[in-house]
């Protein structure tokens, strides 16, 4: 082909390409248009594609999916010792909505925590304490490991990382709310004047126990050991302090005679409080709880009685601080969603 012929073809080719692009982009919405739309996160095509992937919300462009909601809900219930079968249909819907709000808040908190990471350190001891509290909710190590796997924790390291993240977020919130939760003596006295009956001392008992958890010992073996211990106690072959020293696996009480001190019903797990508060004084017996077997003896009992302001003051201040804390936390959460700060979308 001659050179003039080539020059005549070029405008034609360019024109064809331009016509194709115009048609694809602005008329028929062809493949190129669709690809460009997908690069725009706010385009109808991108939103439709996100919904197909299960995205239900976005925070600063970061997606939150239905699967994340399912996992967050299951984890929250698991940490509280529950599961979805414990909820009604309406309660489950409410819980899922709350889980989505929690995930949005967590994403907003992560952005804030990242900026203050130097001030929000978490020690191994803090994580150890959370793990210890969590372990205490399960009857056996196997039950704990099964529950961890069901919640997506591959190993203890994964669990510790999740707990550390939660502790950092709690510390961030505490930094923000500290100035707003202090309670003065005047506030406490005013509340006491209006609610004296609310802080009267409830029924109390003094008790001691020998405890064998079923986390590391089979229920049958634990009961057998304590049955034998009860016989030794009633036959006065051994005293309670000796049995606690020899058998109890409660590190907080085994070296002080198994003493639990004075207790009120509302401060105890229900499966422990109910049988123990029904026991007669100085009549030891075995009690089964979800944590294990206890050999328990009630050594004293006191009826309910009124209290003075000075006696009730620490409790009143703690209760009023809790009320102020909840309001302050709610205010922090609202401030994180202040319009114009971070873009939050629900799809």
Q: Decide which structural class fits the backbone.
A: alpha+beta
Largest sheet: 4 strands, antiparallel
Order of helices and strands: HHHEEHHHHHHEHHEHEEHE
Spatially, the strands of the biggest sheet line up as 4-3-6-5
Radius of gyration: 31 Å
Approximate helicity band: 55-70%
Q: What is the typical, i.e. mean, pLDDT? A: 82
Q: Count of helical segments? A: 13
Total strands: 7
What's the SSE blueprint?
Layout: H1 3-27, H2 31-39, H3 44-52, E1 55-59, E2 62-65, H4 66-79, H5 89-115, H6 124-135, H7 141-150, H8 156-177, H9 185-194, E3 204-213, H10 219-234, H11 240-247, E4 259-264, H12 270-277, E5 285-289, E6 292-302, H13 309-336, E7 344-346
Antiparallel strand pairs: 1-2, 1-7, 3-4, 3-6, 5-6
Report a brief summary of the structure.
The protein has 347 residues and is α+β, with helices and mostly antiparallel strands.
Question: Could you explain how this protein is built, in words?
Answer:
This protein has a domain at 201-302: Roll (Chitinase A, domain 3). It is 57% helix and 13% strand. The protein is an alpha+beta fold and 347 residues long.
Keywords:
347 residues; alpha+beta; Chitinase A, domain 3; 4-stranded antiparallel β-sheet; 3-stranded antiparallel β-sheet; 13 helices; 57% helix
């Amino acid at each position: 082909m001659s050179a003039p012929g080539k020059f005549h073809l070029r405008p034609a080719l360019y024109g064809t390409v331009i016509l194709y692009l115009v048609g694809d982009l602005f008329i028929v919405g062809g493949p190129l248009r669709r690809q460009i739309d997908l690069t725009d996160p706010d385009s109808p095509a991108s939103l439709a594609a996100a919904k197909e992937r299960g995205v239900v919300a976005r925070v600063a462009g970061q997606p939150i999916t239905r699967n994340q909601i399912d996992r967050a809900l299951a984890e929250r219930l698991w940490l509280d010792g529950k599961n979805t079968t414990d909820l009604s249909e309406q309660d489950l819907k409410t819980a899922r909505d709350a889980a989505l709000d929690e995930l949005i808040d967590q994403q907003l908190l992560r952005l804030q925590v990242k900026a203050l990471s130097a001030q929000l350190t978490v020690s191994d001891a803090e994580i150890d304490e959370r793990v210890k509290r969590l372990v205490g909710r399960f009857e056996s190590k196997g039950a704990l490991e099964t529950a961890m796997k069901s919640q997506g924790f591959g190993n203890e390291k994964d669990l510790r990382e999740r707990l550390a993240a939660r502790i950092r977020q709690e510390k961030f919130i505490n930094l923000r709310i500290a100035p707003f939760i202090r309670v003065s003596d005047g506030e406490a006295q005013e509340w006491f004047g209006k609610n004296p009956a609310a802080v009267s001392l409830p029924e109390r008992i003094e008790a001691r126990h020998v405890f064998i958890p079923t986390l590391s010992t089979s229920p049958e073996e634990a009961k057998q050991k304590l049955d034998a211990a009860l016989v030794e106690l009633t036959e006065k072959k051994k005293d309670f302090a000796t049995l606690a020293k020899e058998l109890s696996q409660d590190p907080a009480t085994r070296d002080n005679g198994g003493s639990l001190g004075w207790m009120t019903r509302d401060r105890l797990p229900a499966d422990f409080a109910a049988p123990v508060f029904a026991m007669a004084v100085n009549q030891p017996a075995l009690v089964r709880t979800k944590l294990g077997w206890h050999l328990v003896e009630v050594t004293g009992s006191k009826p309910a009685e009124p209290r003075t302001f000075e006696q009730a003051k620490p409790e009143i201040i703690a209760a009023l601080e809790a009320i102020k804390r909840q309001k302050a936390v709610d205010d922090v959460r609202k401030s994180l969603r202040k319009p114009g700060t971070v873009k939050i979308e629900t799809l």
